[in-house]
Amino acid sequence: MKIGVIGAGAIANFLFEKINEQQQENLRINSVFVRNKEKYKHLESKYAVNLYTELDEFLDSDIDIVVEAANITTVECLLPTILKKKDAIVISIGAFADSTLLAEVSNLISEYKNNVYLSSGAIGGLDLLQNAHALGTVDKVTLTTRKPAKTLIEKEITSERVVFEGKAVDAIKLFPRNMNVSIVLSLAGLGIDFTNVRLIADPHIDKNIHQIEIVGDFGEATFTITNNPLPENPRTSYLAAMSILGTLKRINYNFKIG
Ligand SMILES: NC(=O)C1=CN([C@@H]2O[C@H](COP(=O)(O)OP(=O)(O)OC[C@H]3O[C@@H](n4cnc5c(N)ncnc54)[C@H](O)[C@@H]3O)[C@@H](O)[C@H]2O)C=CC1
Ligand SMILES: O=C([O-])CC(=O)C(=O)O
Asked: Could you state a single Gene Ontology molecular function term (predicted)?
């Protein structure tokens, strides 16, 4: 599968290294969409990719699928155009808290028959949640996220602080670079207005810890994911980058698990 990546930050560099440098069967990044070609020129020789700043040229280059590794605004601005030509994997899932974008994307999927894959990102258990809610019988979903304090607030603190408590719809507005997980959890379950979120800044940890609690007719489930951070961007979990690689590997594999 020939891949086009949007962005050249921490997650994108993980993908360049793991896919193009270390090589993965049937995967190859050919094209990278950036805003400033000069800044990222070194990537061309290092990873044998072509850089693009024009979206249409990027989409018409030798790629089968687009991987977004940028941010929510980029998804809002570019995804509708992408879906007219290519499948897309999205990691900045917070963009789908906007119901207008969600509706537009649903219409484009029907019209152009391209797929959107929402990677699990820094969490897991989305298969269980979707199964448990197949009859609409999950009653409660709560996400408690704990991150190193310095990745959430500028002021130094000595004891943990709850920086947000409420619904996913509001969490993503206030923490767009930290709460994408709350939106993928919402989309898999009860929706952005009914998924409970607590975000805690903890000065005593160096991991991104997500705890998920699900209650419904099926019973109860609890997951704790203790994520190592991605060295290049400690507010992003290593697993978030891995989840894109996992999605890419599963797309063309006909033995589907879950
Ligand atoms: N679903 C999940 O669990 C997670 C999702 N994320 C999302 O992934 C995104 C990327 O994460 P990182 O790589 O750690 O961030 P990063 O800040 O290291 O890299 C983002 C890159 O995107 C580039 N960019 C921004 N707008 C662009 C545009 N319009 N076109 C091309 N490039 C553009 C930036 O210049 C930057 O190099 C985050 O912004 C966040 O939205 C991050 C962590 C977990
Ligand atoms: O990487 C993480 O642990 C989660 C994150 O930043 C997000 O969901 O936006």
From this structure: aspartate dehydrogenase [NAD(P)+] activity
Per domain, the residue ranges of the chain are 2-118+239-251, 126-227
Confidence of residue 27 (pLDDT cuts 50, 70, 90): very high
Please state the atom number of ligand 2 nearest to the C-alpha of residue 184.
8
Cβ of residue 118 lying under 6 Å from some atom of ligand 2: no
Inform me whether the pLDDT recorded for 252 exceeds 90: no
Six token digits for residue 71? 């941010």
Could you tell me which residues come within 8 angstroms of residue 3 by beta carbon, excluding any fewer than 6 positions away?
15, 19, 27, 28, 29, 30, 31, 63, 64, 65, 66, 67, 248
Q: In this predicted model, what pLDDT tens digit does every residue of 133-188 receive, in sequence order? A: 999 999 999 999 999 999 999 999 999 999 999 999 999 999 999 999 999 999 99
- Out of 3.30.70.1140, 3.30.420.40, 3.40.1190.20, 3.40.50.720, which CATH number does the structure's domain 2-118+239-251 have? 3.40.50.720
Positions marked active-site: 210
Residue of the CA atom closest to atom 16 of ligand 1:
9
Q: Please state the ipTM of this predicted complex.
A: 0.98
Cβ–Cβ < 8 Å for 29, 20: yes
Is the pLDDT score of 49 beyond 90? Answer: yes
- The pLDDT mean for the chain works out to 97
| Fold: same for 2-118+239-251 and 126-227 | no
Q: What CATH class does 126-227 carry?
A: alpha beta
Cα dihedral across residues 71, 92, 77, 168: positive or negative: negative
Q: Is 113 left (phi over 0), alpha (psi -120 to 50) or beta?
A: left
Say yes or no: CB of residue 120 within 6 Å of ligand 2: no
